[in-house]
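Internal ticket - ligand job 167, flavin mononucleotide:
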Amino acid sequence: MGELLKIAKEKGGSVIVYQLNDLNIGWCQSCHTCVKSSTVTCAIKDDANKILEDIADADGIIFGTPVYMSSMSGQMKTILDRLRPFTREDNSSKMMPGKKVVWAIAQRNPDSTRYLPVFEKVMFPMKFLGFSECRLLIASGTSDLEELLQQKEIFDKAREIGSWLAE
Ligand SMILES: Cc1cc2nc3c(=O)[nH]c(=O)nc-3n(C[C@H](O)[C@H](O)[C@H](O)COP(=O)(O)O)c2cc1C
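stdout (structure tokens):
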């Protein structure tokens, strides 16, 4: 994640980082107000609206999550649900075309293919929301930065994906 952000900054991108755990983000209540509206806003007045606004303005997004119980964290799933305002009642997207998205996954299990089917499925809601291109980066086996940096394959992939995102 750090390497992705570093590359994006090196390439001249301006970066905004949100720590979901530090924010007040409630659960989607399926009120459908957002899909009936032409704007990308949620009826729940909490920190999610600022994230919606910044995603609408951004060229690229990185969603970073640890693997919890073979899937994304609860915090990440909650914000994902709250991105519904990017869609309309007919399920078309309000998102400006051309936006890129990266999912950066950290897992304790050393097998990097273990949860691939789960995160490949996440690419469906990405397309549904209107992201144009999606890439996946998986760091497995450790969360220790020094150890991760020794894993040349992950490090190189992070740099490659970071450059792609900042293009
Ligand atoms: C509630 C919980 C569930 C987890 N489930 C998995 C899992 O299914 N597979 C896995 O590889 N790691 C799992 N982990 C490990 C996390 O992915 C790991 O903690 C995360 O990558 C961050 O690493 P750290 O705890 O060493 O900082 C879980 C951790 C927690 C706290």
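Auto-summary: The chain has a mean pLDDT of 93. The chain has one domain: 2-166.
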